[in-house]
Structure formats: C-alpha cells, structure tokens
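Here's my example:
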Amino acid sequence: MTREGIDEDREIEEIIVRLSARFPHKPSTTVIDAVAEARSHFERARVRDFVPVLIEREARARLEHPI
C-alpha cells in the first residue's frame, strides 16, 4: 500500500467517527456500510486529493436520506 493509501485509510476512519457522532441513533454498522458504499464509487478515481471529502458527503447523504 502506498503512503497515499495509508493516509486515505486514516481519513476514512475519521469520517466514520465524525458520522457516528453526527448520527448517534444509527447503528455503527449502518455508518460503516454507508462509508464503504460511498468509497466504492470512487475506487477508480485517478486524482485522490478530494476523494475523502466526496466520500463523506455521499455517505452523509445516504444516512440523512436512506433509499
């Protein structure tokens, strides 16, 4: 794994913590699943700088308005 991958993994963990705090009524597995689903949409992104921000926005939207 590259250094960028390690940093991105750390950011994903921080996103999970923030979203868990924002949605305390949601089970932790629901938050983790929302982040994982959002992350899967950006797997092939070439430019990774803003991927964590996009993941957090998409996961938050999934948690606020479940399908």
